[in-house]
Design goal:
The chain is α+β, with helices and mostly antiparallel strands and 252 residues long. The chain has helices at 3-13, 18-25, 29-36, 46-59, 64-90, 102-135, and strands at 169-176, 181-187, 192-198, 203-209, 212-216, 222-226, 229-231, 237-240, 246-248. Among the domains are: 3-87, lambda repressor-like DNA-binding domains (434 Repressor (Amino-terminal Domain)); 169-248, Immunoglobulin-like.
Length: 252
Protein backbone atom coordinates (compact mmCIF):
# COMPACT_ATOMS: atom_id res chain seq x y z
CA UNK A 1 0.00 0.00 0.00
CA UNK A 2 1.38 3.43 -0.94
CA UNK A 3 1.76 6.33 1.50
CA UNK A 4 -1.16 8.17 -0.07
CA UNK A 5 -3.41 5.14 0.38
CA UNK A 6 -2.31 4.79 4.01
CA UNK A 7 -3.10 8.46 4.65
CA UNK A 8 -6.53 8.05 3.06
CA UNK A 9 -7.26 4.92 5.11
CA UNK A 10 -6.18 6.64 8.34
CA UNK A 11 -8.44 9.65 7.61
CA UNK A 12 -11.42 7.42 6.85
CA UNK A 13 -10.85 5.41 10.07
CA UNK A 14 -10.97 8.73 11.94
CA UNK A 15 -14.30 9.45 10.10
CA UNK A 16 -13.07 12.81 8.81
CA UNK A 17 -13.54 14.59 5.47
CA UNK A 18 -10.83 16.43 3.56
CA UNK A 19 -12.32 19.75 4.68
CA UNK A 20 -12.36 18.70 8.34
CA UNK A 21 -8.76 17.47 8.13
CA UNK A 22 -7.72 20.72 6.44
CA UNK A 23 -9.31 22.76 9.22
CA UNK A 24 -7.59 20.66 11.91
CA UNK A 25 -4.10 20.61 10.32
CA UNK A 26 -4.27 24.01 8.54
CA UNK A 27 -3.08 22.28 5.36
CA UNK A 28 -4.85 23.30 2.12
CA UNK A 29 -7.45 20.88 0.85
CA UNK A 30 -5.80 20.78 -2.59
CA UNK A 31 -2.47 19.75 -1.04
CA UNK A 32 -4.17 17.05 1.08
CA UNK A 33 -5.84 15.61 -2.04
CA UNK A 34 -2.48 15.59 -3.85
CA UNK A 35 -0.72 13.83 -0.93
CA UNK A 36 -3.39 11.14 -0.79
CA UNK A 37 -2.75 10.64 -4.52
CA UNK A 38 1.01 10.13 -3.76
CA UNK A 39 1.94 13.55 -5.20
CA UNK A 40 4.31 15.19 -2.69
CA UNK A 41 5.87 17.59 -5.20
CA UNK A 42 3.56 20.39 -4.04
CA UNK A 43 4.81 20.22 -0.43
CA UNK A 44 7.86 22.36 -1.19
CA UNK A 45 10.48 19.69 -0.35
CA UNK A 46 10.93 16.50 1.66
CA UNK A 47 11.37 18.40 4.92
CA UNK A 48 7.92 20.02 4.64
CA UNK A 49 6.38 16.77 3.37
CA UNK A 50 7.51 14.95 6.53
CA UNK A 51 6.05 17.75 8.66
CA UNK A 52 2.67 17.46 6.88
CA UNK A 53 2.66 13.66 7.37
CA UNK A 54 3.32 14.06 11.12
CA UNK A 55 0.52 16.67 11.42
CA UNK A 56 -1.97 14.43 9.63
CA UNK A 57 -0.99 11.37 11.73
CA UNK A 58 -1.39 13.36 14.95
CA UNK A 59 -4.94 14.45 14.01
CA UNK A 60 -6.16 11.01 12.78
CA UNK A 61 -4.57 9.22 15.78
CA UNK A 62 -2.06 7.27 13.67
CA UNK A 63 1.61 6.41 14.28
CA UNK A 64 3.71 8.76 12.11
CA UNK A 65 6.92 6.65 12.29
CA UNK A 66 5.91 3.92 9.73
CA UNK A 67 4.53 6.60 7.40
CA UNK A 68 7.76 8.64 7.58
CA UNK A 69 9.81 5.49 6.98
CA UNK A 70 7.76 4.54 3.92
CA UNK A 71 8.06 8.12 2.60
CA UNK A 72 11.88 8.12 3.04
CA UNK A 73 12.16 4.72 1.32
CA UNK A 74 10.14 5.88 -1.69
CA UNK A 75 12.12 9.12 -1.93
CA UNK A 76 15.41 7.13 -1.85
CA UNK A 77 14.16 4.99 -4.75
CA UNK A 78 13.12 8.10 -6.68
CA UNK A 79 16.48 9.80 -6.06
CA UNK A 80 18.41 6.68 -7.17
CA UNK A 81 16.29 6.48 -10.34
CA UNK A 82 16.93 10.14 -11.06
CA UNK A 83 20.71 9.71 -10.64
CA UNK A 84 20.71 6.73 -13.05
CA UNK A 85 18.83 8.77 -15.65
CA UNK A 86 21.27 11.66 -15.27
CA UNK A 87 24.30 9.30 -15.69
CA UNK A 88 22.70 7.76 -18.79
CA UNK A 89 22.08 11.19 -20.24
CA UNK A 90 25.67 12.27 -19.59
CA UNK A 91 27.03 9.21 -21.55
CA UNK A 92 25.23 10.17 -24.77
CA UNK A 93 27.06 10.75 -28.05
CA UNK A 94 29.16 13.92 -28.13
CA UNK A 95 28.36 15.69 -31.38
CA UNK A 96 30.76 18.28 -32.64
CA UNK A 97 29.62 21.04 -34.97
CA UNK A 98 30.85 20.63 -38.53
CA UNK A 99 33.42 23.14 -39.60
CA UNK A 100 32.57 25.13 -42.71
CA UNK A 101 34.62 24.43 -45.85
CA UNK A 102 36.26 27.78 -46.48
CA UNK A 103 37.37 26.97 -50.01
CA UNK A 104 33.79 26.36 -51.13
CA UNK A 105 32.59 29.56 -49.46
CA UNK A 106 35.31 31.69 -51.05
CA UNK A 107 34.62 30.17 -54.46
CA UNK A 108 30.92 30.94 -54.20
CA UNK A 109 31.67 34.56 -53.27
CA UNK A 110 33.96 34.98 -56.30
CA UNK A 111 31.33 33.57 -58.68
CA UNK A 112 28.73 36.01 -57.29
CA UNK A 113 31.08 38.99 -57.73
CA UNK A 114 31.93 38.03 -61.31
CA UNK A 115 28.24 37.65 -62.20
CA UNK A 116 27.42 41.05 -60.73
CA UNK A 117 30.26 42.67 -62.74
CA UNK A 118 28.97 41.18 -66.02
CA UNK A 119 25.47 42.44 -65.34
CA UNK A 120 26.72 45.96 -64.65
CA UNK A 121 28.87 45.90 -67.81
CA UNK A 122 25.95 45.19 -70.14
CA UNK A 123 23.39 47.35 -68.38
CA UNK A 124 25.51 50.50 -67.86
CA UNK A 125 24.19 52.45 -70.91
CA UNK A 126 20.65 51.79 -69.91
CA UNK A 127 21.40 53.06 -66.40
CA UNK A 128 22.88 56.28 -67.80
CA UNK A 129 19.78 56.88 -69.94
CA UNK A 130 17.54 56.18 -66.98
CA UNK A 131 19.44 58.65 -64.80
CA UNK A 132 19.33 61.28 -67.55
CA UNK A 133 15.59 60.87 -67.90
CA UNK A 134 15.22 61.27 -64.14
CA UNK A 135 17.11 64.60 -64.20
CA UNK A 136 14.95 66.04 -67.00
CA UNK A 137 12.92 69.03 -65.94
CA UNK A 138 9.26 68.28 -65.73
CA UNK A 139 6.93 71.18 -66.23
CA UNK A 140 3.92 70.79 -64.02
CA UNK A 141 0.71 72.58 -64.71
CA UNK A 142 -0.58 74.24 -61.56
CA UNK A 143 -4.30 74.69 -61.50
CA UNK A 144 -5.47 77.46 -59.25
CA UNK A 145 -8.85 76.55 -57.74
CA UNK A 146 -11.59 79.04 -58.38
CA UNK A 147 -12.56 80.69 -55.10
CA UNK A 148 -16.09 80.02 -54.05
CA UNK A 149 -18.29 83.06 -53.64
CA UNK A 150 -18.88 84.11 -50.09
CA UNK A 151 -22.50 83.35 -49.22
CA UNK A 152 -24.50 86.41 -48.33
CA UNK A 153 -25.95 86.42 -44.86
CA UNK A 154 -29.62 85.73 -44.69
CA UNK A 155 -31.48 88.79 -43.51
CA UNK A 156 -34.29 87.90 -41.19
CA UNK A 157 -37.04 90.49 -41.39
CA UNK A 158 -37.69 92.25 -38.14
CA UNK A 159 -41.18 91.67 -36.93
CA UNK A 160 -42.91 94.69 -35.62
CA UNK A 161 -44.65 94.15 -32.31
CA UNK A 162 -48.36 93.76 -32.68
CA UNK A 163 -50.17 96.63 -31.12
CA UNK A 164 -52.95 95.68 -28.82
CA UNK A 165 -56.22 97.38 -29.59
CA UNK A 166 -56.83 100.29 -27.22
CA UNK A 167 -59.21 99.65 -24.39
CA UNK A 168 -62.33 101.75 -24.93
CA UNK A 169 -63.38 103.65 -21.85
CA UNK A 170 -66.52 105.51 -20.91
CA UNK A 171 -66.07 108.88 -19.15
CA UNK A 172 -69.41 109.85 -17.66
CA UNK A 173 -70.24 112.97 -15.60
CA UNK A 174 -73.70 113.24 -14.01
CA UNK A 175 -74.71 116.70 -12.70
CA UNK A 176 -77.90 117.32 -10.68
CA UNK A 177 -80.17 120.35 -11.20
CA UNK A 178 -83.49 121.48 -9.79
CA UNK A 179 -84.30 119.40 -6.73
CA UNK A 180 -81.63 116.84 -7.59
CA UNK A 181 -82.19 113.14 -8.13
CA UNK A 182 -81.27 109.67 -6.82
CA UNK A 183 -78.67 107.71 -8.88
CA UNK A 184 -77.27 104.19 -9.16
CA UNK A 185 -74.25 103.71 -11.46
CA UNK A 186 -72.78 100.24 -12.36
CA UNK A 187 -70.07 99.03 -14.78
CA UNK A 188 -70.51 96.41 -17.48
CA UNK A 189 -70.02 93.56 -14.97
CA UNK A 190 -72.67 94.95 -12.64
CA UNK A 191 -70.23 96.32 -10.08
CA UNK A 192 -71.66 99.34 -8.31
CA UNK A 193 -69.64 102.47 -8.91
CA UNK A 194 -71.96 105.01 -7.19
CA UNK A 195 -75.30 105.02 -5.43
CA UNK A 196 -76.97 107.95 -3.65
CA UNK A 197 -78.78 111.25 -3.96
CA UNK A 198 -77.23 114.11 -5.92
CA UNK A 199 -78.18 117.58 -4.69
CA UNK A 200 -78.54 120.62 -6.87
CA UNK A 201 -75.32 121.52 -8.69
CA UNK A 202 -73.48 118.41 -7.44
CA UNK A 203 -71.71 116.34 -10.10
CA UNK A 204 -70.58 112.69 -9.98
CA UNK A 205 -67.92 111.51 -12.46
CA UNK A 206 -67.08 107.85 -13.25
CA UNK A 207 -64.68 106.33 -15.78
CA UNK A 208 -64.89 102.65 -16.71
CA UNK A 209 -63.80 100.38 -19.54
CA UNK A 210 -66.79 99.40 -21.63
CA UNK A 211 -70.38 100.30 -20.95
CA UNK A 212 -71.75 102.09 -17.88
CA UNK A 213 -75.33 101.44 -16.73
CA UNK A 214 -77.27 104.23 -14.95
CA UNK A 215 -80.59 104.20 -13.06
CA UNK A 216 -82.13 107.72 -12.51
CA UNK A 217 -84.93 108.65 -10.13
CA UNK A 218 -85.82 111.93 -11.99
CA UNK A 219 -84.23 112.25 -15.47
CA UNK A 220 -85.45 115.87 -15.81
CA UNK A 221 -83.11 116.94 -12.97
CA UNK A 222 -79.99 115.29 -14.53
CA UNK A 223 -77.43 116.64 -16.99
CA UNK A 224 -75.36 113.91 -18.71
CA UNK A 225 -71.85 114.60 -20.09
CA UNK A 226 -70.51 111.55 -22.05
CA UNK A 227 -66.88 111.56 -23.23
CA UNK A 228 -66.82 115.35 -23.06
CA UNK A 229 -70.16 115.87 -24.89
CA UNK A 230 -73.24 117.09 -23.06
CA UNK A 231 -76.35 114.99 -23.55
CA UNK A 232 -79.94 115.29 -22.42
CA UNK A 233 -81.98 112.19 -21.64
CA UNK A 234 -85.41 111.25 -20.46
CA UNK A 235 -84.49 107.62 -19.79
CA UNK A 236 -84.93 106.26 -16.27
CA UNK A 237 -82.56 103.42 -17.14
CA UNK A 238 -79.89 103.84 -19.81
CA UNK A 239 -76.48 102.58 -20.85
CA UNK A 240 -73.63 104.89 -21.81
CA UNK A 241 -71.34 103.40 -24.46
CA UNK A 242 -67.67 104.23 -25.15
CA UNK A 243 -68.64 105.52 -28.65
CA UNK A 244 -70.62 108.35 -27.04
CA UNK A 245 -74.15 107.01 -27.44
CA UNK A 246 -76.92 106.30 -24.93
CA UNK A 247 -79.25 103.29 -25.03
CA UNK A 248 -82.60 103.09 -23.26
CA UNK A 249 -82.82 100.17 -20.86
CA UNK A 250 -86.40 100.73 -19.80
CA UNK A 251 -87.41 97.30 -21.20
CA UNK A 252 -84.54 95.46 -19.46
Amino acid sequence: MSIGSELTAARERADMTIEQLSAATRIRTGLLVAMEADDFSRCGGNFYARGHIRAIARVVKADPAPLIASFDAEQAVEEDKTRREERAASKGPNLRPARPRWAVVVGAILVILMGWGMVRLFTLPSDIEANASKTATTTATVTTPTPKPTPKPTVVPTRKPTKKPPVLKTALTLTAKGDGTYLTVRDKKGKRLFQGHLGTGIAQSVTSSGDVRVTVGNPANLIVTLNGTRRTTKFYRFTAHPNGTLTNNATA
